[in-house]
Amino acid sequence: MERFYITTPIYYVNAVPHLGHAYTTTVADCMARFNRAMGRDAYFLTGTDEHGDKIVQAAEKSGLTPRAYVDEISGHFRALWPELSISNDDFIRTTEPRHVRVVQKLLQQIYDAGDIYFGEYGGHYCTGCERFLTEKELVDGLCPDHKTKPEYIAEKNYFFRMSKYQGWLLDHIKANPDFIRPERYRSEVVSMLEMGVLEDLCISRPKSRLTWGIELPFDTDYVCYVWFDALVNYLTAVDWPDGEKFGRYWPAVQHLVAKDILKPHAVFWPTMLKAAGIEPYKHLNVHGYWLVKETKMSKSLGNVVKPLDMSWKYGLDTFRYFLLREMRFGNDASFSEEALVARRNSDLANDLGNLFNRTLSMAGKYFGSRVPAPQDASGDEDLRGLAANAVGNFVRLFGECNFSQALESLWELVRGLNKYVDAQAPWALFKEGKTERLAEVMYGMLECMRKVAACLVPVMPQAAGQMLEQLGVMGTPGLTDEADAWGLLKPGNVLAQASTLFPRIELPAADDAAACPTSAKGEMGGKGKVAKEAEAAKPAAGPKAKADASAKAPAEAPGEIEFPDFQKLDLRVGHVTSVERHPDADRLLLVQVDLGEERPRQVVAGLAEFFTPEDLAGRQVVLVANLKPRKLRGHESQGMILAVRTEAGMELLTASGSVAPGSKVS
Ligand code: MSP
Q1: Which of residues 537, 555, 587 is at a domain's end?
Q2: For residues 504 and 345, what is the distance between their CA atoms, to the nearest angstrom?
Q3: Ligand 1 centroid to 461 CA: how many Å?
Q4: Which residues pair with 47 in a beta bridge?
Q5: Which residue out of 11, 226, 331, 336 has the highest number of ligand 1 atoms within 8 Å of its CB and is therefore the one to mutate?
Q6: Same domain, yes or no: 599 and 492
Q7: Does 521 share its domain with 583?
């Protein structure tokens, strides 16, 4: 069985998690889930980096001992991940005894091999980077990342003979073009190695200056440099040197990091491994930064985005989809709630949600919510070709870390299906009694929806799981042969009647956002749970669901009214005689309702996301008949059809039996 081992950086515990940490961990989670779906034995590691100056300073600031401080902040990271559906197999902390043992063993091994020596060094030390910067790295005498003046420190220390491996590393990178990816970071490292001489790496700190670290096994007056300690976590978690997991997963290890820590991962780490006689990793996958208004997020700038807030407000699956779709892996991307809402509405509500709901409701109407059994189940050639292509590209691009392009490719199928349904017009086939062709078309649509859901499992585990459930699919399908597979959806499966997985949402007004019960108050556990359970209904808690007046929370309902107020309402039973789509508004239908009057009334209803015109025609509805007429997108509306939002979609209000048109509801 093929193996897959993915790691995130272990995060410093000098601050609570933010969007940047959530992004890397979410991507790693999607990769792990994707590889599991590809039938691989996958192992996924994340954790926290807890030694060094930075941590000691942060602990001092908060008035805690380093131990109490790291326990607390590490706990925040550990508690966050399940809230974001992160499926890590292990969570490592560098203060754990298992890690201390492995670091000391590795140090001793490299020391015994002669690649660690004692020497004197004077250098520019940046506390932010936790390392000595070379003269060349300084910009106007400042650290380019932290914009602070490093401290000049001269002291006796231990050094790792990194320079010895410069030639080897360059050759290795050249011989393995995807060792570091994407290409821009690979060429950055290649030019760094070609242009300059690699210096040896100072790997110790005298205890006179820092005690919060792992003691060197060969000199108790020193602790290990935090980066040398931290990188080794990837080995600790798989029980190097002789654990079963080491043999099983190490040959398949890939790291995932942002560009800020390219050098330690692309230069320090492979040379450390080489010196210890351990195979280097397979891939280093490097992504860019999330920016907020063109600036990198940072606590000091106060522009930090809290991942749980976003997940709570917009739904976890929407948040995860946005992260993967919006950032081209390797490039920087801008985060804004406007961009998130735009993606939700265009990709998830309009393209996918609408299509899925239409497909289910047609299957309900034409086949009693069962997957039809077409005589010819091989599907239309064009549709099959489109699906094979889109899914094939999705799988390839996802495996290459091109997540945004992979989703784009999958959406070619989603958009293609939207065109297909309009071109095939199942409602016309139904009217004309072409049942056999109708079964073929509907089966093809449903089978393609199954494929889309299967591909989305790694990215949106909950929503994709719900889609599969609504298609009557048991268990989670794999992706191994999905591109070529056809006909896996079983005829006869019971389908949901409708689906409202992704209602359109609006950006909450500033007041709503303030009232939104997010984790801003620090109540991580409980709130996240509510968010999960409320994915479909969530917009009522944060952004407003557009076509859904009934989704308002009870607290927003008006207070009591007097009986005469109620009497003002003229509610009537009506029969829908015909329905058309609004020519200029995707969400609106023009519904003609017979109220027993001379002519039917026209109602402009925001129901297009939930019903096709064919679904509504002939239905008995309840109408607010004395609502003042008004124009909606250029068409007069003379009343309002009453409907109820349910888990599965939208239900029309009606009388339990057949009632004469125009009957008053009282
Ligand atoms: N402790 C080291 C890593 C040691 S790994 C052996 C460290 N920690 S960190 O807390 O600073 O995390 C850095 C990582 O967090 C980045 O590499 C990236 O994965 C993530 N991000 C932090 N801010 C980010 C953005 N603004 N944008 C994208 N990712 C970001 O470095």
Answers
A1: 537
A2: 5
A3: 25
A4: 10, 92
A5: 11
A6: no
A7: no
CA of residue 653 relative to chain centroid, distance: 37
426 Cα: distance to centroid of ligand 1 (angstroms): 51
Confidence of residue 509 (pLDDT cuts 50, 70, 90): low
Cβ–Cβ under 8 Å, residues 76 and 39: no
For residue 24 and ligand 1, the question of a CB distance below 6 A is answered with yes
CB within 8 Å of 652: residues ≥ 6 apart: 619, 621, 622, 641, 642, 643, 644
> Alpha-carbon Rg of the chain, whole angstroms?
30
Contact of 220 with 63, CB cutoff 8 Å = no
Rounded to 5 degrees, what are φ and ψ at 7?
Answer: -125, 150
DSSP state of 232: T
Partners of 93 in beta bridges = 48
How does residue 543 score in pLDDT terms, banded at 50, 70 and 90?
A: low
Residue 45 lies in a domain: yes
The domain in which residue 591 lies consists of: 563-664
Can you tell me the mean pLDDT for 188-201? 94
Asked if residue 397 and residue 266 are part of one domain, the reply reads: no
314 and 408 share a domain? yes
- Report which of residues 117 and 129 the model is more confident about: 117
Average pLDDT over residues 259-267: 98
pLDDT at 532 over 60: no
Total count of domains within the chain: 3
pLDDT value of position 510: 55
Mean pLDDT value of segment 151-162: 94
Q: How far is the CA of 282 from the centre of ligand 1 (A)?
A: 20
Which residues, 6 or more positions from 634, have their beta carbon under 8 angstroms from its beta carbon? 584
Q: Answer yes or no: do 517 and 485 share one domain.
A: yes
Check whether the bond before 241 is cis (ω within 30° of 0): yes
Tell whether 164 and 309 lie within a shared domain: no
Structure tokens at 309: 């807030």
Q: In terms of Cα–Cα distance, which of 325, 649, 299, 304 is closest to 500?
A: 649
Cβ of 329 less than 6 Å from ligand 1: no
Of residues 554 and 321, more confidently modeled:
321
Query: How many angstroms separate the most distant Cα atoms in the chain?
Result: 101
Grade residue 562 by pLDDT with cuts at 50, 70 and 90.
low
Of 400, 201, 172, 170, the C-alpha closest to 280 is 172
**Closest protein CA for atom 24 of ligand 1:** 20
132 with 279, same domain: the answer is yes
Ligand 1 pocket mutation pick from 257, 297, 305 by most atoms within 8 angstroms of CB: 257
Range in 103-107, 399-403, 436-440, 568-572 with the lowest mean pLDDT: 568-572
3-state SS assignment for residue 633 = coil
What atom of ligand 1 comes closest to residue 49's alpha carbon?
A: 1
**Rounded CA separation 361/383 (Å):** 21
Q: Which of 238, 258, 287 is the last residue of a domain?
A: 287
Residue 120 clears pLDDT 70, i.e. is over it: yes
**What pLDDT, on a 0 to 100 scale, did the predictor assign at position 628?**
84
Q: What is the pLDDT of residues 303-341, one digit of tens each?
A: 899 999 999 999 999 999 999 999 999 999 999 999 999
Rounded to 5 degrees, what angle do the CA atoms 480, 482, 488 make? 120
State which amino acid sits at residue 259: K
Q: pTM, whole model, 2 decimals?
A: 0.79
Residues 6+ apart with CB under 8 A from 651: 643, 644
Q: Which of 463, 347, 320, 460 is nearest to 19 (CA)?
A: 320
